Structure formats: C-alpha cells, structure tokens
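Section 3.1: Structural characterization of target chains.
Under the original work plan, the team committed to producing a structural model for every single-chain target entering the pipeline before any wet-lab resources were allocated. The record below documents one such target. The sequence was received from the expression subgroup and is listed exactly as submitted; it comprises 51 residues.
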Amino acid sequence: MTLWLEGAEDTAVPQWRWRVHDAQKNQQIYFSRLADVLAYVSEQAGVSPPC
C-alpha cells in the first residue's frame, strides 16, 4: 500500500491518496477515501474492518 498527499488545483487543501497493489490480480487500485481502503482490504481479507 502506498499513501501520498496530492495537491489539489481547484482547492487550497491537498488530498490524501492511497494505492493498493492486489498481488493476486496483479493490479493497482486507487482510493481517495480511507473508508474505501479499509472496506476493500477487509473484503479481500474476509474480516470486518477496524472500528
């Protein structure tokens, strides 16, 4: 998983971005919300996301 801060051209507030590498599918999945990252990872792991 990779996390970075991306500057936003239309706003003064930078945005956090995540990239998850799915090794089984050999693909990169990109997210802009932490909740989506947690949902994806917990779904792939077959467990509930952390509270």
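DSSP finds one helix and three strands in the chain.
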